[in-house]
Amino acid sequence: MVRAAIRLMMEDAKEKDSLKGRVSALIAVTHDQKDEGPITLLKHQFEEIVKTHIHSKITPGSCVELFLVEGEGSRIASMTKAFQKEDKMKSVKLLVI
Asked: Which of these, 18, 49, 63, 83, has the minimum number of CB atoms within 10 Å of its CB?
């Protein structure tokens, strides 16, 4: 199980590092409702690639943020990694479309 988890993490990192050129993607982030500060900061830091941002509560204390992003692949990878570095985020998923 540990090997499978490490393999998935390595594949995820390779995918992010290989994003080149113009890319469209969805970034899904889940977090506790009280931890919205980093979301706002990162959204503004990457505002040139954010086309749409949707916020929704999934339980009384948990939220999901969906970002439709478009731009240079390396910039999208940077945004995803920035969310993943935030300790307050429960999960961060990148889906290239």
From this structure: 18
